[in-house]
Design brief:
With 559 residues, this protein is of the alpha+beta class. It is built from 14 helices and 30 strands. Helices cover 26% and strands 37% of the residues. α3 (38-44) crosses α10 (156-165) and α4 (47-72) packs across α7. Mean pLDDT is 85; it is low at 1-17 and 29-37.
């Protein structure tokens, strides 16, 4: 595997450190547990064996993330790649191993930190000059000797069995199989809206109540994972690059069927226009006697398109002669917190308008964007009071009425413009009752062309937890000198409160947050001291230098 480009994705010190941390942490926890079987205990607490189990599962996690990245980048080989991954993980019985490792960490009250792998793995795919070739190469690797889990990690399966035998982890629970041929109609995720209109909605009822309310139902879809919560799964409906916006949430561990299209029998314990929950489920082997319900199917929506798929090189996108204006509107959002949200649109001379805020207009690949994300386009016209705009649907057809918008035209930066001062933007997500996070991001500019980014965040529990004597808080911050984080608090118990504090930890030298900047047109180029570069949408929000737009929002000059 080391000879291939795909295999190189796993060759990082960060990944090695993660695997070792997971293995050592799991072993330490298991060594302190009550173990019934001596032989199982010896193997279950063997660091080398546990490391093999963790590394085998981590390889499966990386493979799944790679499939997801190839799907997101629009690689033509993505469907075949997903099938190859499913076949590989099934061949080496990786699903039950993944369940066991996830449960070990969950019992430690800490989820496996696989989310740290998401961005590095995605970046490998997204920054590849020929991503589809890389995706094809990785699909081939799953059939090669370098991905032979039994040979690479011979202790993985035995140590997993030992954990179960020692009663340190509950074994994966097999899903019942409906052996009798199914008869009747089956539901698709896109029919959830019509089903709700027909039967009404309900929340969190028992399996018995669900059976009385609606009886058993049959559903069909592809099993997908909520990447934020490793043991939460749902059914999705896809066709031709589009997907139903409604989901069928599975109230059981569906790890063995991730990536597969399956038919299930179960009861509906929750139903709304957005989703339904399926519980007390059984796998349907013979679905030949089922027909799709005649309920109306909601239109499938185009999947969100990655920015890079509609971007071109600087100066190769939307030309100045085709651009009438860049317009902006901002307003406060008090929904579960407080934050200032802004909407940027590009007005073209042909009467079309584009809605997306992350890139300068001279990098917008108009042809690719119109094809891949027509819903981000619409029509505009000037009125005596400003601009009227009309949206369009996923097929490029007019959608709804013309609306008078509040957007105002922004001026571009003059060539070689310079800024001076510290600018910042703040937000709060959450509530004083349940707790939340307040965050501030800043950029300091100097007239000699230097900049320094900074951030600070404070998270804490709210007044609801404080009633029981529980107050937990954590903070993080970073600037051009480095970054650090601190956490601590007290937890109320029947015998009083217990307090703990974690120390401040320096993470880096700040080179990834400082460097040189250049302003021109509707763009800012940030060249960081660690070597990486960003080119972002930017313009002065007002004419007196008190507010500047950078990336996806405006920053105000600090007093």
């Amino acid at each position: 595997m080391r000879s291939s480009e795909a295999a190189a994705w796993t060759d990082s010190m960060a990944l090695i450190s993660l695997q070792r941390t997971l293995a050592a942490s799991a072993c330490a926890w298991m060594a302190g547990g009550a173990i019934a079987a001596p032989d199982s205990a010896a193997l279950a607490t063997d660091p080398a064996a546990m490391t093999q189990l963790v590394e085998a599962v981590t390889l499966d996690v990386i493979s799944e993330l790679s499939v997801s990245a190839c799907e997101d980048v629009g690689a033509p080989s993505a469907p075949q790649m997903r099938d190859a991954w499913v076949a590989w993980r099934t061949r080496y019985q990786l699903p039950p191993l993944r369940v066991i490792v996830t449960r070990v960490m969950t019992r430690k009250s800490s989820d496996p930190p696989w989310d740290k792998l998401v961005e590095p793995v995605r970046k490998r795919v997204l920054t590849n000059a020929t991503p589809d070739q890389a995706c094809v190469a990785m699909a081939r690797e799953w059939d090669g000797p370098g991905m032979d889990i039994a040979a690479k990690y011979p202790q993985a399966m035995p140590v997993a069995r030992a954990l179960v035998q020692a009663k340190l982890v509950a074994p994966p629970t097999p899903l019942p199989v409906a052996v009798e041929p199914a008869r009747g109609q089956l539901l698709l995720p896109s029919q959830v809206v019509a089903l709700t209109a027909q039967r009404g909605s309900w929340l969190a009822i028992s399996d018995e109540a669900a059976l009385r309310k609606m009886g058993q139902v049959y559903v069909k879809g592809r099993v997908a994972r909520d990447i934020r919560y490793p043991e939460r799964f749902h059914l999705v409906q896809e066709r031709g690059g589009r997907q139903a916006e409604q989901l069928i949430h599975l109230k059981f561990n569906a790890e063995p069927w991730v990536g597969r299209e399956i038919v299930l029998r179960g009861v509906v314990t929750s139903l709304s226009r957005l989703s339904m929950d399926l519980a007390d489920a059984a796998l349907v082997n013979d679905a030949s006697g089922l027909t799709v319900s005649p309920l109306q199917q909601a239109p499938l929506a185009r999947k969100e398109v990655l920015l890079q798929r509609v971007m071109s090189a600087p100066g190769q996108g939307l030309s100045e002669k085709d651009l009438v204006a860049v317009v902006l509107h901002g307003e406060a959002n008090y929904n579960y917190g407080t934050r200032w949200e802004e909407d940027v649109r590009f007005l073209l001379k042909d009467g079309t308008v584009y809605r997306r805020t992350e890139m300068p207009p001279d990098q917008l690949n108009v042809a690719a964007s119109r094809q891949l994300e027509p819903r981000r386009w619409g029509r505009w016209r000037s009125t005596g009071k400003g601009y009227e705009m009309q949206e369009q649907d996923d097929d490029g057809r007019p959608l709804g009425e013309w609306k008078l918008e509040k957007h105002v035209a922004m001026k571009p930066w003059p060539k070689d413009a310079r800024l001076e001062g510290s600018f910042s933007r703040s937000s709060f997500n959450g509530s004083m009752v349940t707790g939340g996070t307040s965050a501030t991001r800043g950029i300091r500019f100097t007239k000699d062309g230097r900049f320094e980014r900074s951030y600070s965040a404070l998270s804490s529990t709210g007044s609801l937890q404080a009633i029981t004597g529980t107050v937990i808080a954590g903070s993080s911050q970073g600037d051009g000198s480095g970054s650090s984080s601190t956490g601590g608090g007290t937890v109320g118990t029947g015998l009083g409160t217990v307090g703990a504090t974690s120390g401040t930890r320096t993470k880096d030298d700040g080179a990834s947050r400082r460097g040189r900047y250049q302003l021109s047109g509707y763009a800012i180029t940030l060249t960081y001291d660690d070597g990486h570069e960003e080119r972002l949408l930017s313009f002065p929000v007002d004419g007196n230098g008190r507010s500047v737009y950078v990336g996806s929002g405006s920053y105000d000059l600090s007093k």
